[in-house]
């Protein structure tokens, strides 16, 4: 099940908690204290929404004040945001768009409404200052490499601009915006997130050349357009962030005509095995200890899918390694991460069943009894 | 669905064409399964803020009551502090174990996706660690409900609650075990969860037993330190009274939980099954077995709350992962299904259910036994005459008659 990050608490509070537990077991002193004030919560990092700002007609930035000190992040990283909608807590990943060195320790995320979605429309219309949200850890490897590359190409579309915005700010702070070409695709200027700042930077900053590509005026951007727009694209370190179809098309282009190692990309809807060329592992038998059933994986099939194939409704959310809903405790054995090919797992570790396959026999503690058949509980 | 069994049992239940488990055709069973599933799905689709507020509010109420009662007991020197504290703590412990703990551990609130009110993280105020209990209760008992030899809650491996369990001389002590189990229920449950029989049969490796035993000891230590050492110490010279109050609250909770749970499965009305009766059953037959293997207790809203809504044991067994606060709402629909498929709907007042359980426990301590009387199919009551109002007097002077 998906949980928030642990807030950093003082040593004194930890001692109080440990001693006080003698009296409150099986609960923690916290469980009583937090009824007095939510700032006393020490188990899950919460934040208060302090401002809601409209960026474009369908994009909203929310500014958050974490209840405990934010441990910090690198520009370009994302966090998981947990919100309560109609009694249910939903988690989604959002790029952190605030300054990674914000003087007041505030955070922000910028969310584009996905029609028919659950969380993004809620943020667009129902989220208000004063609301409480939950924060996961900062995650992600879409960050500026060290040392910063000389020549950079940014390729973005729609809300995919959010990590690029953070990268640009961090680069410019280190005087790293020396030769950046930024191609951004969206419907028109009104639909351009962070347009005012970026258009101004495009005009006044020598090292930053902005090439907006408006769908209202031109055909959708294709990899073939690159030669005309940015003739030296293949030599540039490129950061690509946008919808899946765009990423797929451009990544294929880089593999064929460019240098794939110069391309960094961020998917908002990642696919398992999509980017990494991993060799499948040995597979094995998975024993689910609490509900006493076994499943088989050939090494390509995730534990989640293998378990579901036996008719059990295992908990899951995103099915792509982002949300942590599918976590089970590893009792014994090792698993292979289907995204990276890495073999990992120590007894007692929580593993994401949607992106791992057994490497030899494994035993898992699923934490609670899983129902069979259609009594599925999927939380998304 | 397994083919209709031939008579193998001298008690005759398996061959009885009127036995609720065998009277429906495979097609009827399939339809019945669909109907029950539809109730589950409708409720699940409707879960939301109202339900979340209910459990959050109840958890807050329990914590406040527990805190206030513990504080009152620090002043247990005064009679008021002692009586109010003991009563408050007893109620708090009952709520915590039954309407909150049992139901959270069943995953009834997992849909909220709140890690603090979730079956995989919850720990309850009971000697039994939640992880062992989830296996023995949620999985074993709720899957093999009332199947003799498989459901280890049929007699908890120490009692004979069904005439088809073979008699052993050890059962002569049953009336005593019964009293002890009632008073020490949480300890009985903790020990039962270890499932030593599974270990003897080689179904469970020794390493797992050791691990679980360590878990129980750790958990039990914490419980004992809290109730019998730490709080008495804090009460200073009133330590004896606080100790007695805490022990009383635990026993009150134990006896209450025992009573509710025994009324849920062992009254005469509830059916038990042989392994072959339950073998290869269809989804529909699974629902029938859950339906007739449990029995409800009639009562008011406070009674239902204090019983953790296990007074709706029938609904609970049909839908173990449905929030308990919804059982009362769906009960009429379950009854309606019983009416249409001519299946029993087991229910009765507390004293009647409890009496029939105790009578069986006494009788079955001795060899032999009696076949428990089963109710016929549930028949929905005729709509009351007042609904159409044929009585002219009543129509004219409704407040008088
Ligand atoms: C690493 C990472 C970073 C992200 N950063 C941002 C960000 O900075 N800003 C931002 O707005 N979003 C970002 N997202 C996407 C975000 O997590 C959600 O997926 C998005 O807000 C939709 O959620 P929802 O609850 O509204 O829709 P859901 O209820 O999850 O989905 C509803 C429907 O929309 C489809 N859908 C889901 N996501 C998208 C999408 N991104 N585009 C098109 N269709 C989609 C689903 O397949 C589904 O059919 C990021 C995602 C990842 C993995
Ligand atoms: S991480 Fe989302 S389902 Fe596995």
From TrEMBL, chain B:
GO molecular function, one term: oxidoreductase activity, acting on paired donors, with oxidation of a pair of donors resulting in the reduction of molecular oxygen to two molecules of water
Domain Fatty acid desaturase, residue spans: 94-347
InterPro entries: FA_desaturase_dom (IPR005804), Fatty_acid_desaturase (IPR012171)
Region (Disordered): 1-22, 374-401
A biological process term (GO) from this entry: lipid biosynthetic process
Organism from which the protein derives: Nocardioides albidus
A Pfam family the protein falls into: FA_desaturase
Name of the protein in question: Acyl-CoA desaturase
Record-level GO cellular component terms: membrane
């Amino acid at each position: 099940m998906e949980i928030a990050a642990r807030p950093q608490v003082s040593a004194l509070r930890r001692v109080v908690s440990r001693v006080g537990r003698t009296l409150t077991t099986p609960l923690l002193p916290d469980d009583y204290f937090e009824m007095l004030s939510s700032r006393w919560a020490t188990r899950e990092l919460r934040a208060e929404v302090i401002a809601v700002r409209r960026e474009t007609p369908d994009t909203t930035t929310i500014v958050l004040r974490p209840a405990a000190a934010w441990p910090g992040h690198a520009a370009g990283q994302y966090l998981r945001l947990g919100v309560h909608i109609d009694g249910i807590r939903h988690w989604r990943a959002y790029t952190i768009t605030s300054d990674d060195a914000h003087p007041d320790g505030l955070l922000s995320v910028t969310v584009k409404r996905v029609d028919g979605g659950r969380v993004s429309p809620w943020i667009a219309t129902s989220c208000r200052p004063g609301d409480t949200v939950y924060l996961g850890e900062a995650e992600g490897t879409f960050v500026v490499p060290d040392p910063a590359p000389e020549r950079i190409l940014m390729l973005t579309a729609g809300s995919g601009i959010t990590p690029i915005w953070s990268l640009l700010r961090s680069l410019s702070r280190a005087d790293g915006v020396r030769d950046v070409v930024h191609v951004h695709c969206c419907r028109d200027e009104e639909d351009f997130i962070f347009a005012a700042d970026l258009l101004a930077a495009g005009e006044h900053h020598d090292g930053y050349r902005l090439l907006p590509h408006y769908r209202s005026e031109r055909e959708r951007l294709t990899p073939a357009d690159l030669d005309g727009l940015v003739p030296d694209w293949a030599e540039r370190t490129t950061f690509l962030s946008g919808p899946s179809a765009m990423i797929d098309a451009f990544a294929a282009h880089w593999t064929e005509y460019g240098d794939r190692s110069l391309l960094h990309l961020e998917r908002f809807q990642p696919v398992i095995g999509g980017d990494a060329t991993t060799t499948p592992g040995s597979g094995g038998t998975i024993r689910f200890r609490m509900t006493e059933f076994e499943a088989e994986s050939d090494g390509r099939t995730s534990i989640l899918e293998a378990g579901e194939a036996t008719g059990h409704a295992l908990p899951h959310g995103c099915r792509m390694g982002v949300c942590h809903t599918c976590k089970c405790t590893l009792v014994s054995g090792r698993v292979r991460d289907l995204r990276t090919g890495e073999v990992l797992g120590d007894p007692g570790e929580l593993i994401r069943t949607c992106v791992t396959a057994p490497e030899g026999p494994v035993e898992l503690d699923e934490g609670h009894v899983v129902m069979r058949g259609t009594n599925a509980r999927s939380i998304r | 669905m397994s083919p209709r069994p031939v008579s193998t049992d001298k008690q005759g239940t398996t061959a009885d064409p009127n036995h609720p488990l065998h009277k429906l055709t495979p097609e009827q069973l399939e339809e019945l399964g669909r109907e029950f599933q539809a109730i589950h799905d409708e409720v699940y689709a409707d879960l939301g803020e109202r339900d979340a507020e209910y459990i959050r509010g109840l958890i807050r109420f329990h914590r406040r009551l527990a805190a206030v009662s513990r504080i009152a007991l620090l002043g247990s020197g005064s009679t008021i502090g002692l009586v109010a504290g003991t009563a408050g703590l007893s109620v708090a412990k009952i709520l915590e174990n039954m309407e909150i703990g049992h139901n959270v551990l069943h995953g009834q609130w997992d849909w909220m996706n709140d890690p603090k009110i979730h079956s995989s993280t919850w720990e309850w105020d009971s000697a039994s660690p939640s992880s062992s209990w989830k296996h023995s209760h949620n999985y074993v008992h709720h899957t093999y409900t009332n199947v003799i030899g498989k459901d280890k809650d049929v007699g908890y491996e120490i009692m004979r609650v069904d005439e088809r369990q073979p008699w052993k001389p050890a059962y002569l002590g049953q009336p005593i075990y019964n009293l002890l189990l009632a008073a020490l229920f949480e300890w009985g449950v903790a020990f039962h969860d270890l499932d030593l029989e599974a270990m003897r049969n080689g179904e469970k490796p020794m390493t797992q037993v050791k691990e679980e035993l360590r878990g129980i000891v750790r958990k039990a230590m914490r419980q004992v330190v809290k109730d019998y050492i730490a709080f008495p110490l804090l009460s200073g010279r009133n330590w004896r009274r606080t100790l007695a109050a805490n022990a009383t609250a635990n026993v009150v909770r134990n006896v209450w939980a025992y009573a509710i749970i025994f009324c849920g499965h062992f009254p005469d009305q509830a059916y038990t099954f042989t392994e072959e009766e339950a073998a290869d059953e269809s989804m529909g037959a699974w629902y029938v077995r859950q339906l007739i293997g449990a029995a409800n207790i009639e009562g008011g809203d406070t009674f239902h709350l204090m019983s953790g809504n296990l007074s709706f044991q029938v609904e609970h067994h049909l839908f173990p992962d449905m929030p308990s606060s919804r059982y009362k709402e769906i009960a009429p629909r379950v009854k309606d299904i019983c009416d249409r498929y001519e299946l029993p709907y087991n229910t009765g007042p507390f004293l009647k259910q409890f009496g029939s359980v105790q009578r069986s426990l006494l009788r079955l301590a001795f060899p032999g036994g009696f076949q428990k009387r089963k109710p016929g199919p549930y028949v929905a009551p005729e709509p009351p005459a007042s609904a159409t109002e044929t009585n002219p007097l009543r129509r004219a002077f409704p407040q008088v008659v």
